[in-house]
Amino acid sequence: YLMKQLSRYAYANTRIKVRISGLLDEGFFTRAVSVDFAGFIEMLGKTGYAEIFKPGEHIKPEDFENRLRDKDREIIKKIARFYSSRNEKNLILLLDERYKVEELKTALRIWKRRIKGEDIEIPGAFSSLSSAETIDDVVKILEGSGYSDAVEKAREDYLKTGSLFPVEVRIDTEYFEKLNKHIEKLSRFDRDIAKKIIGAEIDRENLLWLGRIHLYYQGKVPSDVSGFIPGGGYIPVEELKRASLNVSESIQRMKIPQVYRRVIGLVPNNLAEMDRLLEAIILQLIKRAFIEKPFSIGIPIGYIFLKLTETKRITEIFTMKYFTTVVYQ
């Protein structure tokens, strides 16, 4: 069995480990805090991100984020080509689809602002939503995208609440259901590690939704509206539904691992810190996979998570320094 795992992963995972060693270290982010916008651009110019910038260009945060997203998507597609097995290849390519999901949700939020009267265009792959006047128009326009059914399933809840909350959750659920179906096709060895990492990511999404319900949708989303993604690693949907009705009381009764206790205590008042701690939990799972299961699907999944986390941090620093240095000075 070990020989089968070696033949499947030895070449590809060795190449990915080279990429892992090229990720920015914590020292880079520590130094980035103390420099201004120009200094941060100079720091990035000495890394693999140098190609993002064109000579003499003044790039805006949204363009910077789009270029990083495109760069990450190229990397994911390249990694998928390292693997000859269809199951591993398809799973990795499905991780790339997460970008499509996030772009769709962003497009729907802009669409909602448009139908309320804002003069704003929808950019990117879902620009055709600009012509939609109703949720039924959205369903028709999205035919062939893979997510038309998800929006249609959330149609009644959207009309009941007037909120995109159930639509976004349904889209996320559809995506993670696809991901979990692909995970089931892996070998038992790979399936176990993939389920742990993806399950922790679902827990993360669900806890963020729980926080958003209490911050933005309290009283606007009826209790019968499904608002959580099934398949989490440690926190069942039923527990989350109870917590959505009474967060402080329900959280105390949740049967969850000790490592989640500190995290869940931050709902709903400190979602940024909660997200940081959840990210750290996933990172620990990935590090364990690197050490204990070096010839497994955990290596490509782990690298992609680390790369996307790095991209997110760089984008946040770029945006913050852009607005404090360029816009407000």
What report would you give on this structure?
By secondary structure, the chain is mainly alpha-helical. Helices cover 70% and strands 0% of the residues. It contains 15 helices and no strands. It has helices at residues 2-21, 26-33, 37-44, 61-80, 86-115, 135-141, 148-153, 155-161, 165-184, 188-217, 237-245, 247-253, 258-264, 271-292, 298-327. α1 runs parallel beside α15 (298-327) and α10 runs parallel beside α11. The radius of gyration is 21 Å and the shape is globular.
Shape: globular
Structural class computed from helices and strand pairing = mainly alpha
Total of helices:
15
Strand content: under 5%
Low-confidence stretches: none
In short:
The chain has 329 residues and is mostly helical.
Task: Give a quick set of tags describing it.
329 residues, 15 helices
What is the topology?
Elements: H1 2-21, H2 26-33, H3 37-44, H4 61-80, H5 86-115, H6 135-141, H7 148-153, H8 155-161, H9 165-184, H10 188-217, H11 237-245, H12 247-253, H13 258-264, H14 271-292, H15 298-327
Helix pairs in contact: 1-15, 4-5, 4-15, 5-9, 9-10, 10-11, 10-14, 11-12, 13-14, 14-15
